[in-house]
Amino acid sequence: MVAFEDETTITQKPCLRKSMSLEGEQQRIEHNGSRNKFSAYISMSWPDQRLIYDFYGGMNSTNSIDHLENIKTYVVKNCWKRLIIIWDNASFHVSKMVQDYANSQRDWLTIIYLPTKAPYLNPNERKVNQHIKSDVCANRFYTHIEDQKAAVSEYLDNRFRTWNDDRPYDT
User: Fold this and answer.
1) pLDDT (tens digit, 9 = 90+) per residue, 117-133?
2) Most buried among 19, 97, 108, 133, using CB within 10 Å?
3) CA 60, CA 9: separation in Å to the nearest integer?
4) What DSSP assignment string belongs to 46-62?
5) Residue 165 in 3-state DSSP?
6) Rounded to whole angstroms, how far apart are CA atoms 125 and 9?
7) Phi-psi group of 74: left, alpha or beta (phi > 0 → left; psi -120 to 50 → alpha; rest → beta)
8) Which residues contact 20 (CB under 8 A, 6 or more apart)?
9) What does 22-45 look like in DSSP terms, one character per residue?
10) Residue pLDDT, tens place only, 28-61
11) Cβ(4)–Cβ(111) under 8 Å?
12) Residues 6+ apart with CB under 8 A from 151
């Protein structure tokens, strides 16, 4: 099994995108100035585009390892012999902590690093991350960060299949 992994930061502060409005008027989005944020770690299996995702308070080595541990449960459950993760060269991906973890998991995990400054090689960037920000977060304010996490989760569950979902795929 091959999976592309990427992270994205989602902020509570509304992201303004193009929208229809009367000439000379701009869409108004009420918000309280909150700049709370969370990170979504998203892994997409290829080529069937099933997702597994986790939400964290930030992006770091510990969260990367935790996400890999969550993936490992699916690898074991589905009796896969090997998972090849393809991800970028983020500092927390190449840290000694993550490298040590990956080396201890060689029986089921292989990691391939994408070249630096090449997000166009990771399909998560355009198939998932951009759509989350334009379809779920753009021109909206969520009063509570948990409401925003729920909206992102619902969007991902409805738009994509998850690794433990047997529904037919249709986008």
Assistant:
1) 888 899 888 889 888 98
2) 133
3) 12
4) ETT-EEEEEEESS--HH
5) coil
6) 12
7) alpha
8) none
9) -TT------------EEEEEEEEE
10) 667 676 778 999 999 998 878 889 999 999 999 9
11) no
12) 136, 142
Six token digits for residue 96: 């000694």
| Token reading at 15 | 């992201």
- In the β-sheet with 83-87, what is the strand arrangement from edge to edge? 109-113, 83-87, 2-11, 37-46, 50-56, 161-162
> How far are the Cα atoms of 50, 125, 147 from residue 65, in angstroms, in the given order?
20, 21, 26
* CB 127 within 8 Å of CB 44: yes
> Which amino acid type is present at position 50?
R
Identify which of 9, 49, 51, 12 has the alpha carbon closest to the alpha carbon of residue 29: 12
Q: Over the stretch 135-163, which tens digit does the pLDDT of each residue have?
A: 888 778 888 889 999 999 999 998 887 76
Rounded CA separation 169/171 (Å)? 7
How far is residue 31's CA from residue 42's CA, in Å, rounded to a whole number? 27
Instruction: With CA atoms as reference, report the closest residue to 64 among 96, 107, 36.
Output: 96
Tell me the pLDDT band of 170, cut-offs 50, 70 and 90: very low
Gap between the terminal Cα atoms of the chain? 21
Share of the chain above pLDDT 70, in %: 85
